[in-house]
């Protein structure tokens, strides 16, 4: 076994024992099901975001946490952005859903930092004066999130940043060498059951 393999194995064992110790010391679990609203701002990045303005981003999420350090999310996300140039005056409305697996750091009792990754799909509707070949499209996504949650009794709140790499062949036909995704920063507020 190489030194790197031993170091990685030691790190994983340390994380597992820290999570187990934290679960044993705390009182019985409460609030393993969370439902929350989210709202903030987002925009397209890279070549996809050229001339697109920051716009509102919103969503509704169901979060399940069967263990203190692992969670699963299913959510709806929406956003609206505009783009205005000499050649176009359009609005991009995004409606989609995604599933995430979250790893939470169980070092604090009420504040839980996390990272997450998953899969998603969105419908991006384009409206307005197109003056070009842009069309509405369904797009597969690879979302990655980082943030924190604050839990107090039956309430939960937090903040997160999510980057969604957009995967789509049709975008390649509409934009030369499309690179980028959708990035948003939102606040969350909800209830625990």
Structure description:
The protein is an alpha+beta fold and 193 residues long. The chain is 15% helix and 60% strand. It is built from two helices and eight strands; from the N terminus they run αβββββββαβ. It has an eight-stranded antiparallel β-barrel. A hairpin with a 2-residue loop joins strand 6 and strand 7. The longest helix is centred in the N-terminal third of the chain and has 23 residues. It is elongated, with a radius of gyration of 20 Å. The termini are far apart. About 8% of the residues have low confidence.
Fold topology:
Blueprint: H1 3-25, E1 33-44, E2 55-67, E3 70-84, E4 89-104, E5 111-129, E6 137-152, E7 155-167, H2 169-174, E8 181-192
Antiparallel strand pairs: 1-2, 1-8, 2-3, 3-4, 4-5, 5-6, 6-7, 7-8
Based on secondary structure, the structural category is alpha+beta
Mean pLDDT equals 82
Shape by Cα distribution: elongated
State the end-to-end CA separation: 45 Å
Helix content: 10-25%
Number of helical regions: 2
* Biggest pleated sheet: 8 strands, antiparallel, barrel
Order of helix and strand elements from N to C terminus = HEEEEEEEHE
Secondary structure tally: strands:
8
The strand order across the widest sheet is 1-2-3-4-5-6-7-8
Q: Gyration radius, to the nearest Å?
A: 20 Å
Instruction: Report the β-strand fraction as a percent range.
Output: over 45%
Low-confidence stretches: 19-28, 172-177
